[in-house]
Amino acid sequence: MTTIAVTPAAPDRIAITGSSGLYGRSLVHEIRRSLPDARILGIDCRTATKHESDDFWQGDICDPRMADVLGDFDPDTVIHLAYAVQPGRDIQAMRAANVDGTQRLLDAAAVCTARRVLVASSATVYGAWSDNPPVCDESTPVRPRPEYYYSEHKGHVERLVQDFAAAHPGIAVSWTRPAIVCGPGVSNFLSDIFLSMPFVFLPDGNDTPLQFVHQDDLARATLAILTASARGAFNVAPADAVTHRQIARLLGVAAVPMPFFLMAGMSRLWWTLRLPWFTTPPGLVRYSRHPWVMSSERLRRELGFEFEYSCEQAFRELLVREDQAEGSRTE
After folding, report:
1. What distance in Å separates the CA atoms of residue 119 and residue 234, rounded to the nearest whole number?
2. How far apart are CA 138 and CA 246, in angstroms?
3. Which carries the bigger pLDDT value, residue 4 or residue 9?
4. pTM of the predicted protein model
5. In CATH, which of 3.40.50.720, 3.10.310.40, 3.40.710.10, 2.70.98.70 is domain 13-184+211-239+292-308?
6. How far, in Å, CA of 43 to CA of 113, rounded?
């Protein structure tokens, strides 16, 4: 007896939370390019000055009205990208947005007609540990650093998504684990750190590698996962990595070895006293000490996906942004 493979229908009615953020804007643009007939509902607490979605609801995902908005739109695909990423001092408020907000979104998706649900996680869920494997694939245990609460929140989010997938086997549930996102116009606390540092510190002298993914590659990978109705976790990072010393050379600054205990102490001091330059929670400094490099072989093997930008090329986009800013200041 011959088995006929059934190709899943392409996403047609797509709801995106966090549609005004970097990930969301890039994905909306890619959907417009690849699926011009798809209808998009954007959901975000921020007002978009140039929004490309067909419908837009401005509000918080924790607002009870969000479920009605989602139900009225009747999506076949739900994408959850709305998270509190920027560092904040109210940890409980961030947890409510990141973890409780995800649960509310999943509850709303369960009662509509969605055939696919995709949630954004983070590469930081692997944690920066001394015993990490040389390369983490999707089977590597998730061990977020508890000191960096955004990573810890993402660990909770992944457990919620896995429970949702088990409870709703008829829905193709997937989640992405992107590396550090770079691209034209990227401006966030991570890009500000790289562009404002007078030195690149090497914790205990370690030349730790980091991975960067271009926002266009992240959007293309996400749409490839959705179009295939793929399930489970997907790492999203090019095959290469950029070490701290390479970053220093690209930035044109010195790479300075420093004992990690001193780096950690300085980070706590800067955060406590609200000093300039390093406006990040102290736990993030631990992600500079040990590698957390990922393999995206699953994307290539199962979906035939290829990255257009290497990690170094993606990182160089930040330098383009800085060069443009310098030019505007001298005009």
Report:
1. 11
2. 27
3. 9
4. 0.90
5. 3.40.50.720
6. 18
